[in-house]
Specification:
nine-stranded mixed beta sheet, 2 domains, Aminopeptidase, alpha+beta, globular, homodimer, disordered C terminus
C-alpha cells in the first residue's frame, strides 16, 4: 500500500498557496505572473518526482513517467478564481504530485506509472476548462485566438505571449496510453459536512446550462414618468427572479441548483428608469431530461415576464454542457479505499460544480474524490478544509490509484505534442 | 408685448446642441471641454444681448443687466446627462438668452431688466444642483473640495482647475436685487402629451428621498451549494423590488413615483452566488407626509426581506429633499400668458423631476413652465419636443416675465461676487 507523506503534502499545499497569496486565500488568475511562476515550480517538482515535465502551449503542466506502461493521470487545475480560496484546483494538483512521489519511492508500486497534470484556466478567466478541452481536442485554434479575458477584455493570445507560450505546441491526448484519470477536489458545498462524512465519491458531474437574458424597457426620467406608463427593465429582471423561485421547484430535480450571478441595469443611474437589464442565469443538474425541462420553463417565464412588464426580451444560451458520469469501477476503487481509511465516513454524491474530470471523461475513464469544505464555502478567500481531511483525501486517492492500476483500465488514450 | 424671434430661438437651440453632439442628442457632462466651450459661447451671447457676463467659480454663467432696477432672473442648467437629450437644461438657458435679447429690443420693455443664468452641474456629475446651491449659499467650500465625479471618481477640484476656474470666485445671491426666478424646461414625462396640453404651469417640485440599500448574504459556489442553504443577496434585492411593487401603491399618493435605478451584485460572476447586493432606490412626492410614510414602509420592507432571505441588511438615506412650491402670483402670470397664446391647452401640474428652481425658490419667488416631451422621453438621446411647442414655451415665459416685472415681486435678493 502506497503510504503518502502527510507532512510533505501539507507543506507543499502551503508552499503553493504563496503564489498569489491574498489574505488566507490566493489571487492567481490564469497566466498572471503568479500563475506562471506556480506552473514553473510544479514542473520542477514533477522532475524531482522522477517524471519528465513540460508546459504546453495553453499552460498545461504535464509530468510524464519514463515507463512505456499505460499510466494513470492524476491532477486538477492550478489557477484560482480572483481573490479566492487556496485549495480549489491546487489541492488536486498537489495530490497528483504527492502520489507520483509516493509511488516512485514505494517498492510495491514501482511498476505502476503515475502521470501528473495541472490544467490551465479551468476557472474560465478566458475560456472555461481551456486546458482539459485543449488536451482532448475539443477547442480549435480559432476559438483560442478569439478568446479574451472576462474581467479586463485583453486577448488570450497576448497573455500566452507574455507567458512565453506563444510558440509552444499544445499537447493532445493519444489513444492507448492511459488507464484513466483521477482528480481530487474540495466539495465546494456543505453536503459532506452536514452529513458528517469526510470523503465524497463522485458519481456524476452536473451539466451547466447558462443564459444571457436581456429585457429592453424604456429608459426615462425617474421623477417625471408616471408609474402607470413605465417599462422598467430592471423591474422585469426582479420579476423574473421571483417567477423562477416559484416555478423552478415544481420542475427541478432534488439536486438542481439555479443562480442569477450577475445583473446589469443600464444606464444604471439612480434617477433614470433602467432601459435595459441583463441577467446572467444558469442552472445545473445531473439529468439531461431535467435540464431540458428547465430550459423550456425558463423560456416561458422570460416571455411571460416581458409580456407582463411591457418589455421586449432576448435570451441567448451561452453554455449547454451535458452531465458527465464517473467510471463505476473507479467509484468502487475509491469507495474501498475510503472504507479502509475512514469506515462509514464516506458517501457517493453528484458534483454540482464543473470539473476538468467531466472533460477528460469524454476520452478516458475518470473518477473524483471530494473532501469537505468547512462551512460549504468556496470561491472565496475564507475557503478551507481540515488538515486531517486534506491528508485523508490524498491517501484515499493514492490507494484507489494503486487498485485501478493493478486492475488495468477499460478505455485508454495517450498524448503527443502538436508539431 | 415682447415678441420673441422664433427662428433665432430654434437656430440657437440647434447651435447649442453642437457642443458635445451625440446622435440626435448631446453628451456634455459638467466641466467637459464641450461644457466649458458651451459656457464661454453663452457668455458671449449674453454680452451681445446687452448684459454684463461672467463665469463664476463653479461654472455658473451670469448675464447681469446694466440697470440698477430689480431684475427677473431667467435660466436653467447648461450641462447634460451622459449621452442624453439636447433640450434638458439647454432649453431654459436659451429661453433666458432669447427673452433678454427680445426685451432689449422691445421699446415697451426697455425698463424691465432681465438677468440670465446657466447653472452648473444640476445633473450631479459631481454634486446635484451644484451651481444653484452655490449661488444661494447652500454648499460650503469643504463639500466642493471633497466632491468627486460619480462616473470616473476624479475630484471636482481637478475639473475646476482644468476648466480655468480654480481661482475664480463663486457668486452669491444678494438681497433686494431680484424680483424672482423663472425657468423653462421640458416636462420629462408624458402628462402634457397624454392630456393633449402644450404648456405646463408648475405648482410644486417633488421632494426626492434616496437610499443605498445593501443586503449581505453568503458568497458561494453556484453549483455545489444546495438551494435550501443559500443566502443569495441578489435574490433578496429582487424580492425587495416585488415587495415594494405590492406595498407602495397602498401608501403612495396619486403622483408618487419610485425607482431602483442601479443594482450591483458582488462578486458578479455567473457561477458565484452573490454575497452582496446594493440597490440605489428613490421615491418622490410633493407631500412631505407621503414621503415620511414611504420612508417608514421602505424600512419595514427591507427588514422583512432580509429576514425572509436569511440576509443581513443596511439602509442609508442619501437624499431627503423637501418638496418646493412655486409662487402663486408667478403661476397666475404664466397661466394668463398660456391662455392668451394657447387657449385651453395648458394645465397646472407638479414636477416629478428636480430642478434648479426648487433651490432658488428658497431665496426668491420662482416659477416654471413645462413644454411637452415627445413620448414622455428624456435623459436619453432620443429626447425631443415639437418646434412649435419650443417656440410657444418661450413666448409664454416672455409674456409672464413682462407681467411679473410690471407687477414687481414679493421676495427679492441679488448677488455679489465672493472676495
Amino acid at each position: 500500500m502506497p503510504k503518502i507523506n502527510a507532512a510533505r503534502l501539507l507543506s507543499d499545499l502551503r508552499r503553493f498557496a504563496k503564489f498569489g497569496a491574498y489574505r488566507t486565500g490566493v489571487h492567481r488568475p490564469s497566466y498572471s505572473e503568479d500563475d506562471i511562476n506556480s506552473r514553473r515550480w510544479l514542473a520542477e517538482q514533477y522532475e524531482t518526482a522522477g517524471l519528465r515535465s513540460y508546459i504546453d502551449g495553453v499552460g498545461n503542466v504535464f509530468g510524464i513517467p519514463r515507463s512505456e506502461e499505460r499510466a494513470l493521470l492524476i491532477g486538477s487545475h492550478a489557477e484560482s478564481q480572483c481573490y479566492a480560496g487556496w485549495l480549489d484546483g491546487a489541492l488536486g494538483v498537489i495530490y497528483g504530485l504527492e502520489i507520483a512521489r509516493t509511488f516512485a519511492k514505494s517498492p510495491g508500486c514501482l511498476d505502476l506509472p503515475i502521470a501528473t497534470v495541472a490544467w490551465a484556466d479551468e476557472e474560465g478567466h478566458y475560456v472555461p476548462m481551456l486546458g482539459s478541452r485543449s488536451f482532448i481536442g475539443d477547442i480549435d485554434q480559432e476559438e483560442i485566438d478569439r478568446a479574451t479575458n472576462v474581467d479586463h477584455g485583453l486577448p488570450l493570445a497576448d497573455a500566452l505571449h507574455a507567458a512565453g507560450l506563444a510558440r509552444v505546441p499544445r499537447s493532445f491526448i493519444e489513444a492507448q496510453r492511459y488507464v484513466g484519470y483521477l482528480e481530487g477536489h474540495i466539495e465546494q458545498g456543505d453536503t459532506l459536512e452536514s452529513s458528517g462524512k469526510r470523503i465524497g465519491i463522485v458519481t456524476s458531474i452536473v451539466g451547466t446550462w447558462q443564459y444571457s437574458i436581456v429585457f429592453y424597457g424604456t429608459q426615462n426620467h425617474a421623477g417625471a414618468t408616471r408609474m402607470a406608463i413605465r417599462k422598467d427593465a430592471g423591474f422585469a429582471a426582479a420579476k423574473l427572479a421571483m417567477a423562477v423561485a416559484e416555478s423552478f421547484p415544481q420542475v427541478a430535480g432534488p439536486s438542481t441548483v439555479w443562480t442569477a450571478g450577475r445583473v446589469t441595469l443600464e444606464p444604471g443611474a439612480p434617477n433614470i428608469i433602467p432601459g435595459k437589464a441583463e441577467v446572467l442565469f444558469q442552472f445545473r443538474d445531473a439529468q439531461m431530461s431535467v435540464l431540458r425541462r428547465l430550459d423550456t420553463l425558463l423560456r416561458e417565464l422570460v416571455e411571460d415576464t416581458a409580456l407582463k412588464t411591457g418589455c421586449r426580451f432576448g435570451i441567448l444560451q451561452t453554455e449547454a454542457g451535458a452531465p458527465s458520469h464517473m467510471d463505476l469501477t473507479f467509484q468502487e476503487a475509491i469507495e474501498d479505499a475510503a472504507e479502509h481509511h475512514a469506515s462509514g465516513a464516506h458517501m457517493r454524491m453528484p458534483s454540482g460544480a464543473g470539473h476538468d474530470a467531466q472533460i477528460v471523461a469524454q476520452k478516458l475513464s475518470a473518477g473524483m474524490v471530494f473532501v469537505p469544505s468547512i462551512g460549504g464555502i468556496s470561491h472565496h478567500w475564507t475557503e478551507n478544509t481540515a488538515d486531517e481531511d486534506l491528508v485523508l483525501g490524498c491517501q484515499v486517492l493514492a490507494d484507489a490509484a494503486e487498485a485501478i492500476l493493478r486492475a488495468g483500465g477499460k478505455k485508454s488514450g495517450a498524448h503527443v505534442q502538436e508539431r
